[in-house]
Structures are given as C-alpha cells and as structure tokens.
C-alpha cells in the first residue's frame, strides 16, 4: 500500500472511527482514503475549514471520550499547535500524524525531518510534551499508528507519529497485526460523555483554565509526572552493528536511517566498522542507549544524520555530554543524502580523528 493509505487503514484497524482533517501535501491521500473508508467502516470523516478548526474538533471528540485522530503536514501542525497545547493541558487522548515537508515557511512538498523541534520540544505554548514516534518504513508506520491509540489513552495525552514525505508517498508491502487491534478505553471517570450515559450523579468537566496559580502549578506537576513516566516506560530504539568494534557511531531516524544502514553495510565490506542507534521514539529520547553506544571503547566520534539543518543533534550532544566529539550532517529541501554521500562523511570523520 501507499504509506498514506496504509496509515489511514491502520487507524481503522486500531478501532478509531473518528477522523477530522484538512488537506495539505504530502499527506492529503490520508484524508482522501478515509473520506471513502470511514463511512464503509461505520465511522465519521469531516473535513474542517482549517487546521485550527480541526485541532478543536479532535479536542471536542476526545473530551467526549471518543477515540479520534487527525493528520497533517508541517505548517498544518503549526496551526494545530494551540489546540494541541489545550489537549495536553486537558489530558485528552488524541493521535496526530505529521507527514513532514520542507520548510520553514511554505518551503516545499518534498520529504524533510525539519519538524523535530516542533514535535519534541512542544510546538505550542506552555509546559507540555507529546509522545513522539518515528517510523522508518510503512510497516512500522502502520504498527506505530495502531500502538498510538492505546498509548494516548494510557497517558491521556497527545501522541504524534512523525514521518517524512517518503513515508507517506512510497509503496511497500504491509500487514495489519491482529495483536495490535484494541478497544477504546473506558473514559467514564473523566470524559464528558453524559451523566445519564454513565449513570452518574457527578458531572465530568474537561478544562484547561486554572486562574489560581496553585491549581495551575499542581496541574503542571501532574503533567510533568506523566512525562517522566513516559521516559521510564516508553523508550524505543533499534541498534545496528553495535556489537562490532566501531570507530564511528551514527544516530539517525526515519527514512534517513535506512540510507545510513546501507552505508554501514557498504563500509563494513571496506573494513570500516560503523554502528548506529535509531530512535523509534523521539520523545522520550533513548538517552542511555545513545550515551552507552557513544562511550564504547573504540568509538572515536558520533554523528547525527538527519534531513534538517541540525535539530536532533542537540539531543545527541546532550546524551554524549562532551565525552566524544559530536558532529552533524544533513540536507533540507527534499534532497535525500545518498549512501555514497554518507560513506564519504563517515570516512572523513574517522580520518579526522
């Protein structure tokens, strides 16, 4: 399947029957696909008048206890960021998918990874975080989408799937694992699902306004404790060629990591050992895995390779804590570095140390 269509189907297989969206390249095929599939599955699709409107549509649906998601691309997620902050503050579970395009500004429609800061550092206002997952294949995108809904409900927090334009536009074989199907959580304790429906005498109120400073501080401490729990329980990453005596460690994610994997295999045939850590969650970031891999005996230098002007490299530097040199290599605008380019970078870095 095409990546965008597989993402849409994965949401339905995950038990999500509520989807609101606004078209923007390179993710518009998700909305196109679900405009047909949601009614077939007994679900609801509604195109909002803007991304801002969509963010509050999903907020409203989630506040009522519905399993809901939306998709967009880069500047569309920027427009949703105010709503995302409200959703996080109100502790509502929503899944977002960002199929990234180049920027800043309107930029271009080709693949990019330049929304790393936006996703991992909180693109909107206030102290909030999202659980951020980064697939490297369409199959992994399918699995992460299906996992995202129960995770959003577990933490009552937005979860975002961060894929570049290639994830949305290329085609690969996919399966929809039965074990990842799930039923929506029972949200009667907090959702505004109606007192009669819940057979309750207590009103549920979903809110984000805390005019009393002590109450606002207390709510933020609750959120912070939740993010710390994510750091303990939800870190995911893949190691590649880490058991070898590598002299260079690559940290890369998403589509870019697939190019790096090819480069590592080719360099191995030349006699140059290179290891890689591929974060599958960007928040929480696999700090210990990166640090431990960087500090292995033969490792001389670490490089963050990404399709941006250097965003994830800041997290890599934070992990390594100055104990190894940390370099960056990347491109923007839709040009994906080739395996040969990565091999040249690796040779130069190892030679320089």
Describe this structure in words.
The protein has helices spanning 3-13, 28-40, 51-63, 75-90, 116-120, 138-155, 165-169, 195-198, 213-233, 254-270, 287-294, 312-320, 339-352, and strands at 18-21, 44-47, 69-72, 95-102, 108-111, 131-133, 159-164, 237-240, 248-251, 274-279, 281-283, 301-306, 326-330. The protein has 353 residues and is α/β, with parallel strands linked by helices. The chain has 2 domains: 3-233, Rossmann fold (3-Layer(aba) Sandwich), CATH 3.40.50.970; 237-352, Rossmann fold (3-Layer(aba) Sandwich), CATH 3.40.50.920. Strands 3, 4, 5, 6, 7 and 11 form a 6-stranded mixed β-sheet that branches. Strands 8-10-9-12-13 form a 5-stranded mixed β-sheet, sandwiched between helices. Strands 1-2 form a two-stranded parallel ribbon. Strand 1 (18-21), helix 2 (28-40) and strand 2 form a beta-alpha-beta unit. Helix 1 (3-13) packs parallel to helix 2 and helix 10 crosses helix 13 (339-352).
Rg estimate, integer Å: 21 Å
Helix content: 40-55%
Cα distance spanning the termini: 44 Å
Any idea how many domains?
2
Please name the defining characteristics of this protein.
13 helices; Rossmann fold; 44% helix; 353 residues; 6-stranded mixed sheet; 5-stranded mixed sheet; alpha/beta
Brief description of this entry?
By secondary structure, the chain is α/β, with parallel strands linked by helices.
